[in-house]
Amino acid sequence: MEYHCRYFDFAVPQTILDRHNIPIATKCLTAAYVLSTLTLFGLRFYAYHSDNNNVTTTTPPISFHEIKNPLFQLIPNKVLRFPCSIVLSNLVDTNICKFVLNLINLLVGGSFIERNWNSSNEMIKFILGIGSITNLVVLLITIAVHYIVPNRVSLDLILDGNYTILIGFPIIYKQLLPETTIIDIKNPSFLEKKFRFKLLPILVMTFMTITQLFVFRHFSNVLSIWITFFSCWIYLRFYQVLPASAIGTTSDYYNSVQGDASDTFQLIYFFPDIIKPLLKPIFNKTYTLISEKLNIIKPFKETDIDKGNDIAEQRGAKKVADNVKDRRRQLALDVLQERLV
């Protein structure tokens, strides 16, 4: 789909907009999302009328947005009684704008991603598995912070447990369509800029963080947004296993691929250039700590990085020249050291 005018050009690849080939997992997740959200609305609507029908002169009427349902919504002080909310909260929304946005994103983007992954299990694992792990982590941190500063964080507040689609999908778009331009601003000339899919994650994160901080003022949702971002990236970077068909080859060298070791998918390249010098040593030390000292993740080998770069280049990613030079320099030093020994 394309739109051209005097001020900007807008284009979305036709492969994303293929509505006639919706894979099975996307269909099931979309149906579950719509059904769960409508069920939650129905339960809250019934409770709202029941409560207000019993209102007396001494008890004020309750507003609809105050109605909660701990079965579907993640509420810290109710989760022990309703642990299923950790999973079910991935499939509900109470905000109509977020519901519509997630529904379109799931139908259109989910279909594109599942077709590229060629794995229904991965789609379900990503949305429900990563989403549930994120919800559990946010829940534990919220409870811990409550006991440290009880007056600042309430355990009766609803946590939004459905950010995986909104945050995780832009990360995948950056991975699959890194250099594809979405909007090309032409006029005025001082604003001339090409917005590619690789910029989408940081734009989404910035907008959502500012909205939660200054509009809704919801600390736990800001926490959920960023934990979701890191959880999705960590899974895609280190743990996801895709079949050879997902990377467009049947070579024995690419039987399957675990994670994405490409230079362009490093965490540092999700952030603006102006703060990269500040973040790079922090990320490098963190990576060394969790991979070499704590052995939480398996460090990438040179062959893993080369394989990841090959796949990224097939997707249109540009080489990161500095990283290639650094690795070649380090490889030469290692060879020289071996000869000296």
Provide the fold topology:
Blueprint: E1 2-4, E2 8-11, H1 24-53, H2 85-88, H3 96-117, H4 120-148, H5 164-176, E3 181-185, E4 193-196, H6 200-216, H7 219-239, E5 241-243, E6 256-258, H8 276-293, H9 302-314, H10 321-340
Helix pairs in contact: 1-3, 1-4, 3-5, 4-7, 5-6, 5-7, 6-7
Description:
This protein has 341 residues and is α+β, with helices and mostly antiparallel strands. The protein has one domain: Rhomboid-like (Rhomboid-like fold, Up-down Bundle). Helices cover 55% and strands 6% of the residues. The protein has ten helices and six strands; from the N terminus they run E-E-H-H-H-H-H-E-E-H-H-E-E-H-H-H. It has helices spanning 24-53, 85-88, 96-117, 120-148, 164-176, 200-216, 219-239, 276-293, 302-314, 321-340, and strands at 2-4, 8-11, 181-185, 193-196, 241-243, 256-258. It has a four-stranded antiparallel sheet, with no helix packed on it. Strands 5-6 form a two-stranded antiparallel ribbon. Strand 3 and strand 4 (193-196) form a beta hairpin. It is globular, with a radius of gyration of 23 Å. The model has no long low-confidence stretch (mean pLDDT 85).
Q: Which features would summarize this protein structure in a list?
A:
single chain, alpha+beta, Rhomboid-like fold, two-stranded antiparallel sheet, 10 helices, transmembrane helix
Overall mean confidence score, pLDDT: 85
Structural class: alpha+beta
Task: Note the quaternary state here.
Answer: single chain
Name the helicity range: 40-55%
The parts where pLDDT drops under 50 for at least 5 residues are none
Could you name the CATH class?
Mainly Alpha
Distance separating the two termini: 60 Å
Strand order of the largest sheet: 1-2-3-4
CATH topology: Rhomboid-like fold
Order of helices and strands: EEHHHHHEEHHEEHHH
CATH superfamily: Rhomboid-like
Q: Return the CATH architecture.
A: Up-down Bundle
Strand elements, count: 6
For the largest beta-sheet, the strand count, sense and barrel status come to: 4 strands, antiparallel
Using only C-alpha atoms, the radius of gyration works out to 23 Å
| Coarse shape | globular
Q: Helical segment tally? A: 10
- What fraction strand? 5-15%
Number of structural units classed as domains: 1
GO biological process, one term: retrograde vesicle-mediated transport, Golgi to endoplasmic reticulum
Main location: membrane
GO cellular component, one term: Golgi apparatus
InterPro entries: TMEM115/Pdh1/Rbl19
